[in-house]
Amino acid sequence: MYGLFRRQDIRALGGFNEPCVVPLLKPANSSFRLDLDCYFSFLKDDSFIRISCQVRGLSATKMGKGGKAILAEDAVCPVERAPATKPPFTVGDIKRAIPPHCFKRSIPKSFSYLISDLVIIALAVYSTKYFVYDGLLNWAMWVAYWVVTGCVATGVWVIAHECGHHAFSDYQWLDDTVGLIFHSLLMVPYFSWKYSHRRHHSNTGSVEKDEVFVPKVKEDFGGISKYLQHPPGRLIQIVVTLTLGWPLYLLFNVSGRKYERPANHFNTHSPIFVDRERFFIFVSDISLLAVAGLLYRVYAAFGLAYLVKMYFVPLLIVNGFLVLITFLQHTHAALPHYDGTEWDWLRGALATMDRDYGVLNHVLHHITDTHVAHHLFSTMPHYHALEATEAIKPILGKYYQMDRTPVLLALWREQRECVYVDKDSDNTEQGILWYKNKVE
């Protein structure tokens, strides 16, 4: 007896070419082995398997004498890769599909989102005055404060990031003023990151010139990473990346592109920047020093424990979100990367994955589930991005990529599957590289 994955269930995952045929073994001495990246359930008649997210692989095993498992048949559902050939449409075609009002920036509307976030944070801070209980209840209230403040402050970070893209208003000076204030309050060097992030948008998908989360090519893969390709090692990598990844990137260009000399986001003469940008790197540094001085005054008045609980724990959550969001947007086995012989801007911008964070999509101002549109038109304000995304889907077709796998499952899967990039063994696509995980 055979069971068939229903085509509509598989397509809903956005990740497979065809449904998979798998033997459903009924004898008592037989059993299923399913290698899943998520949860699954059998329907009432046992004839279909419903899967809520991506399937890594599956097989049927038959128990031999003494309980020894004998492989009966394997059926693997491969990830459907995004198209890597030159698309049959242009940026102009995509833009014409988007309603013109989606490109309009409104000062009142932009400020309304920022003010809403700030009010929520202020209320959360004020509520800590009433955390007078002892024991577990007190800790539960603090955890709630950290989660709410960290998530909403990430939304503030996203708005300041939009300022760097000139997506907040029609006035560059206003965008830079708002962005400088609120990124500095979150310990982000506004202009420094604005310039490096702009280069990320200009070179997305390039293994040679992209600025952040640049995958290692097979020839460069090695060192300690080679010995961390097992579950405990992957967990260590995830924890370090989410907690230290953001400051390590800013300070030492960890996961960034290669430069001829050491690079960071605070040195005015860092190779990341050109001469006309160096004064503004200095402005960013001075702004961070001003915020550091403000934090010192809080420490002097209330103590280190207060400062850590009120500011640094939520900031740790913000930093973790930044790394998580960026990693998942640009890391997926379906996404191609290109070397200098093949890369072009449009294909690079399309090598981006929209993700579903549930209710957090709204809290994070849809930077998560509209990132493809953001890479195509970065000056578009976030409050029009959902409408724009729906408008461009018919034009993009299979070039549009969305993965609704639960975020933590996706993080673990990508850490396991996306180890380095390399050309396929058949070598038919010169200059196009795909994620692989075979460690020799």
From TrEMBL:
Superkingdom to which the source organism belongs: Eukaryota
GO MF annotations, alphabetized: oxidoreductase activity, acting on paired donors, with oxidation of a pair of donors resulting in the reduction of molecular oxygen to two molecules of water
Residues that span the membrane, as ranges: 111-133, 139-161, 235-252, 279-299, 311-328
Subcellular location: Membrane
Pfam families recorded: DUF3474, FA_desaturase
Family annotation (CDD domains): Delta12-FADS-like
GO annotations of cellular component type: membrane
Keywords: Membrane, Oxidoreductase, Transmembrane, Transmembrane helix
Residue ranges occupied by any Fatty acid desaturase domain in the UniProt entry: 139-401
Family: Belongs to the fatty acid desaturase type 1 family.
Name of this protein: Uncharacterized protein
Upper classification of the organism: Eukaryota, Viridiplantae, Streptophyta, Embryophyta, Bryophyta
